[in-house]
Amino acid sequence: MNATAATIEIQVEELSQLFDSLDPFPFRERDLDKSAEEYIVGWAREIAKNQSIEIIIHVPQRTKDVANTNDVQSAIQKYFVYKAGLTDRDLSELFRVGRQSLFVGVAVLATCMVLREFSLAAFGAQGIGRALNEGLLILGWVANWRPLEIFLYDWWPLTRRRDLYRRLSGAKVLILAREAES
Q1: Which residues contact 34 (CB under 8 A, 6 or more apart)?
Q2: Residue 182: how many CA atoms within 13 Å on its side-chain side?
Q3: Portion of the chain with pLDDT greater than 70, in percent
Q4: How far apart are CA 62 and CA 53, in angstroms?
Q5: Cα 17 to Cα 57: distance, rounded to the nearest angstrom
Q6: Res 125: pLDDT
Q7: Residue-wise burial string across 156-172, b where 16 or more C-beta atoms lie within 10 A, e elsewhere
Q8: Cα–Cα distance between 31 and 25 in angstroms, integer?
Q9: Alpha carbons 148 and 151: distance in angstroms, whole number
Q10: Which phi and psi (to 5°) does residue 11 adopt?
Q11: How is the chain split into domains, by residue range?
Q12: Ramachandran angles phi, psi of 156, nearest 5°
């Protein structure tokens, strides 16, 4: 056990409990079980970003004899590399949608500003003309709400999740036998 690493401990009866039972791939290629993933990720979120992570899996002595720590570590690391890659793709998709939304938003804003000038000339700045002018101005800016939201805020949680998956992909995995229960 590493003294500077934060530890996530898991207790299972069989190592297969960590992995998705419906996944047909060999042990090293398998997806983590959803519950195991949620447990590991949930605890990892509580760990300081500058601290390394160590995952300790407690198994019965009979299981420890057949367990290959390198296979389990490789499977867990590959899974979190895969999850980081998926999150990277989600981030790219979000920015693609943001760029498209920004293009539409700027076009709507420009159109609204031109229509506003025509409205001012046709109806003036009083009564219904004023309401129309203000409505066009608001519509133009509201059309830019989503791209601004994407570029200012929506990408943060995805980068945090991706970085967490990357940290977990570098976690050291240990398998320890626990004492037989009486």
Answers
A1: 20
A2: 0
A3: 90
A4: 26
A5: 11
A6: 82
A7: eebeebbebbbbbbebb
A8: 9
A9: 5
A10: -120, 120
A11: 6-85+171-178, 86-161
A12: -60, -50
